[in-house]
Amino acid sequence: MVQQKIYLAALSLLAAGTIQAQSLEKMQWLNESPKWEIKDKNTFVMDIPAKTDFWRIAHYGFTVDDGPFYYATYGGEFEAKVKITGKYKTTFDQMGMMIRIDHENWIKAGVEYVDGKQNVSAVVTHGTSDWSVVRLNDAPKSIWIKAVRRLDAVEIFYSLDDKEYIMMRTCWLQDNCPVMVGLMGACPDGEGFTAIFEDFKVTPLPDQRRLEWAEKQKE
Asked: Does residue 152 lie in a domain region?
């Protein structure tokens, strides 16, 4: 009974958003950027190196996994959100959020610059990669990306004002395993650019299966 009460109290904290993400200072690198800094605790700036990307096999026939990725590891279900601002220069310059199990299973979502236009973009990889894009009519200074992991799926949204969020993708991702969640960029064809990330936050959500279990315990 005591353990059950503790567990239900933890669920209440999660639901209220009391438990928040790790600080930027405690995150880790995959392919560390040659130049980066943390400003005012909530702003992360990194240079995206030239000739870097994340892609596996499909369409192009090559595999690359060398873009900078700054991340923390989370288990269970969560909502992740970040504001992104890029000084895009060359086609395929890109930045955003990545959710990653390993080098064969990952999602990246954000902005990709193509033919002088910003596109909200998502690449989902399970063995091989796919790519979906929606061209933006304007060239916003910044956009917000949000991802919600529930059970075996991730929903991806974007916003131009951090108020109205538009779904851009729903995709499968293995559940019941920890994932790396963080900030990524790539510059496959250009000479590099500067990427600015603000207010990155990961908020754990009550696991749907555990919620159902907790409700049954009340009966």
From this structure: yes
Q: Are 181 and 78 in contact (CB under 8 A)?
A: yes
Asked whether residue 14 is domain-assigned, the answer is: no
The answer to whether position 111 is within a domain reads: yes
DSSP line for 181-218: EEEEEEBSSSS-EEEEEEEEEEEEE--HHHHHHHHHHH
Number of domains in the chain: 1
Contacts 24+ apart (CB under 8 A), 8-14: 8/214, 11/206, 11/210, 11/211, 11/214, 14/204, 14/205, 14/206
User: What pLDDT band is residue 2 in, cutting at 50, 70 and 90?
Assistant: very low
Looking at the DSSP bridge assignments, the partners of residue 20 are none
- Residue 98's nearest CA partner among 180, 203, 196 is 180
What CATH number did the domain enclosing 187 receive? 2.60.120.200
Q: Is residue 83 part of a domain?
A: yes
pTM of the model: 0.88
| pLDDT, tens digit, 9 for 90 and up, residues 15-31 | 444 344 568 999 999 99
Cα separation, 173 vs 153, in Å, equals 5
Half-sphere exposure of 154 (CA within 13 A, CB side): 30
- The pLDDT tens digits for 53-109 are 999 999 999 999 999 999 999 999 999 999 999 999 999 999 999 999 999 999 999
Residue 55: which domain range? 20-205
Identify the H or E element spanning 12. Answer: helix 2-15
